[in-house]
Each structure stands twice: as structure tokens, then as C-alpha cells.
Amino acid sequence: MQLPIRTLSKMLPALIAFASSAPAQSVDHARQLFEEAKYAEAKSVLSTLQKTDDGSAAVSYYLGRIAMIDNDGNKAVRHFERAVQLEETSALYHFWLGSAIRDVTPHVSKFRMPFNARRMKKEWERAVQLDPNQIDARYGLVQFYSMAPGVMGGSIDKARAQAAEIAKRNEMRGAIARGLIAEQQKNVAAQEAAYRQAIVAAPDSAPGYFQLGNVYAVNGKADEAFATLDQYVKRQPGDRWAMYEAGRFAGTTGEQLDRGESALKQFLAVPPVDANAVYVGGAHYWLGRIAERRGSKSAARAQYEAALKINPGSQLSRRALDALK
Fold this sequence. Notes:
mainly alpha, globular, disordered N terminus
């Protein structure tokens, strides 16, 4: 039965409104799934949307985020490139594109590395240009400027300038940035001072404690490393990331091995919702290091193999496994 033209004319505005709102509602649904760490479900929704409408920057952005969680850097780069192409003025999209390029760079040829480094820097600079309060992009620039050689644009002065800009906006993160610069300059005292400042600025936040504890651990100060971690645990007893750090400190120092092993197993039993393949594989790596500390090469080998199965790109796990042969 055909509807009268008058009836169709009355229905048309509602149909147009529905057609225009349905994709947005679907993107919102995918975004909610992503924020709830239901990544497989979010990916399914987003992939369907991409097939029907490849003109949504948000769809490409969230697919890129999920690709990074899945440890597929090349796919993430492609998705973020598409997001930037569709919405060039998004500082957020430029930041994540730069970050994805950073993650794939260690796996490209030596000839391509300089190109990737310049491109990474360009994306972060564009993000800051679009939004001076894009702290994550500024922190990326601190990494670049402090690590890159001068011929590629590296500059400690520029790194410090970015750290100062970060501190104006977030005192804790500015201190963390100063700690990174001190690490590149092999100034342990300055590292410790920066991370203590981070703790003072944000006593309930993890980064200062974890970074300071790691400095102690790599410099053979096991007691100080675990004491720093315990300070944080007293303030945030429910943070499962502290378990990962306990395992890392144990594997690094060779101390409190029972605690470290137990903590990592608890971490793996119920990983935090934001733990991607890098960290799940990393937990197996540190269990391998603990096994090596105990003299059990077979147990260490099993853990390194498990780490590489989860995160095939882990150079730490690959080198550790090769060293056992």
C-alpha cells in the first residue's frame, strides 16, 4: 500500500533526523563500550560503522586506540592517519598519530627511523599548536627532544622548555618530565629529586612513586624501592598496578622474590582494565627474570616464551630468551 504524499511529507523530517542521529548514537555506544574496556565489542560496532560510513573521524580514532591496545602499531597508524585526514584540527588525533608512529619506529628499518622520528615530532608539534594544553603531546616532545641527537632536532633546552610548560598546567607531570630529562642525562640525583617533587605535588597518584621506586631499583637500592612502593600502597591499596611494580622491582633487584612472584601472578589473574598486551607480556617477562634469579632456566624460558606469544614485538623478552640458549 502506498502512503499519501501528504503523509510522506510529514514523516520525512523524522526520517531525516533518525538517519542523521543513528550513526552518532552508534559511535556514542562504541565510545561507551571502549570506556568500559569492552574493546572487542567496541571494535565490532566500529568496524560495522566503518563499512557503512567511512567518513567518521571518531570511528577511525577509536579503532586506532583499540589497535594500540591490541599491540598492532601499523594498523593504529593507518586508523589515526584517517582520523587526522577527516578532522585535521583535532589536537587529540594528532597526538595519538604521533604516539602510534613512536611505537612502530623501533621495528622499522634504520633508513626509515629518521623519517619516522621527524614525522612523530611533527604530529606532536601540531597537536600543541592546535591546543597548547595538550600535555600528552608536550610530554611526547620532551621524550623526543631529550632522546634524539642534535642532528635530528634533539635539544635538552627545548625539552626543558616543554617540561616547564607542562608544569604550568600540571605540577606533578612537569616533575615527571624533568625526571625523564635527568634520566637521559644520567643524573640520578636529579631524577630522584624530580620524582620526589612529583609525589609531593600529587601524593595520591602513582607516577611519582613508581618512577622513584624504579630509580632506586635500577641503582641497587632495593630497600628504598620497596619502601617507596609501600608508601603508595598505603594510600591506594586497591591499585593493582602496584602488583606489577612489585614484580618489576623484585626482578630488577633480586630481592623480595616471593613477594614479586606472588604479586605478578595476582596481576595476571585479574589484570587492570587498562592493561594491554605490552604489560600482560611484561608481567610474564618479569616472572622470567625472577625465575632466573632463582636459577631456574626452564621456568624462565617458559615465561619468556609466554611473554613473546602475547607481545611478539618485545625486545626485552626476545633478548632474555636468546641469552638462555
